[in-house]
Amino acid sequence: MNDTDPMNHFRQQLHDHFESLALNDTLASFRNRAWDRFCELCLPGKKCEACRHLPLQSLYQNDFQHFSHWEEKENDIAPWILDEFQDSHIVLINGFYVETLSRAEDVLSLDRAMDHYGLFLQNRFTKTLKEETDPFSILNFALQTNGAFLYIPPHEKKKIQILNLLTEEPSLSMPRFQLFLGKESDLELVVTNVSLSESLCHLSLDFMMEENSNVQYTDSIDPNYSGWYFESLRASLKKGSRLETLSLTAGAKSVRQDIRVELTGENAHSNLKGLWTLDDEKQSHTYVHVDHQAPFTESNQYYKGLLNHMSKSSFEGKIYIHPQAQKVQSYQMNRNLLLSEGCTANTKPNLEIFADDVKASHGATVSRLNEDELFYMKTRGLSEKTAKHLLQTGYCKELIDDISVPSLKSLWQQHLFQS
After folding, report:
1. 183 contacts: CB under 8 Å, gap ≥ 6
2. Which end of the chain has a smaller Cβ tally under 10 Å, C or N?
3. Residues of the chain with pLDDT > 90: what percent?
4. What is the distance between the terminal CA atoms of the chain, rounded to a whole angstrom?
5. What Rg do the C-alpha atoms of the chain give, in angstroms?
């Protein structure tokens, strides 16, 4: 590669960002180790299987500014705080946890959390640095500046919104959020991602779930999101715990979601769902890896894509079942509906099974609107435009109906109505 190569250009930017941090807090040693690990992994290129559909050359040509901490006023964030979470929200702006604007108990900055939960977090960070293989996720660890830690005590129930807001252009934002759920605790978590700039944001969420804990997680990327949005979700589920996720996006320059779930205890359960509705030249890419490490665990993956114009999506899902994980049930499905000749949907579901007493299946579909259904609706007096719109909204309805927060459901219903 020569000096004008976009990858070299981007790598130098990242190095400059890392050097500019110069932070001497309790996380400094872990940032340094994460940067060394990132240098080992290197930026992904075309040969990286998990990133091969990303427009990497376009990303690497950007110039992103250094981190900046902008504490907005409460009135400035009001439009993005959902009605149901006026008294229970956490605010991240340009990657920084803003305590003065947050309204939630049991939340600490990561730096302060190291004083209270140091041994636990050190063990978790060490495991992450040893096992993480995604270079973008490791990069988040190296460049995060003021992340947050949420602790849910045993037997407690909480409902919280995280507002992840980008305000500066063009900036590089690396928010990080660690969550620990005590035994038999319950969390409803909604993350709303809003960008007012052509920035790059990589949000990292790490769930550690004790026995019989439950998480219902909804991840909403604003339909008007601009710029680049990457997300890594990591979750470790102990005995009897349950994780349900729903991801919603209308795309951006590129959305990349990397989800990896470990089912480490018997009867742990994960139910992962997602919907992308893309038009113009927007992109969305999803990578899911579910690791069954214990017997009697169960997982489901169900993702749907609706694509129009020159949009592009990819889905790669993996179910990995270890030899000791007998009596496992695991299912995976990705469906895609193409509305024009120019859009592209890539899908690659796969299984790796090393146990002999399991129930597992996977599948994928790529199709177009049913001409017979269109014809039937037009014979009943509907215009072709109206008929197509009804079929599209009907295709998305089952996942929109899964949104548990009324104001968020209304937002996505309005988006589909206007699209």
Report:
1. 154, 155, 210, 211, 212, 213
2. N
3. 81
4. 43
5. 21
Q: How many Å apart are CA 62 and CA 13, to the nearest integer?
A: 10
Burial of 3 (0-12, 13-18, 19+ CB in 10 A): exposed
- Whether 33 maps to a domain, the answer reads yes
User: Are 193 and 210 within one domain?
Assistant: yes
Determine how β-strand 254-263 pairs with β-strand 328-338.
unpaired
pLDDT at 3: 52
Q: What is the pLDDT of residue 20?
A: 86
Mark whether 346 and 271 lie in a shared domain: yes
Per-residue pLDDT band for 197 (boundaries 50, 70, 90) equals confident
**Which pairing describes strands 172-173 and 358-368: parallel, antiparallel, or unpaired?**
unpaired
Domain ranges, residue 419: 371-419
The predicted model scores a pTM of 0.95
Are β-strands 186-195 and 172-173 bridged in parallel, bridged antiparallel, or unpaired? unpaired
Residue 1 lies in a domain: no
Evaluate whether residue 65 is within a structural domain. yes
Q: Are residues 272 and 387 in the same domain?
A: no
Residues 309 and 407 in one domain: no
pLDDT at 196: 84
Task: Report the number of distinct structural domains present in the chain.
Answer: 2
Residue 97 to residue 118: CA distance in whole angstroms: 19
406, 365: one domain: no
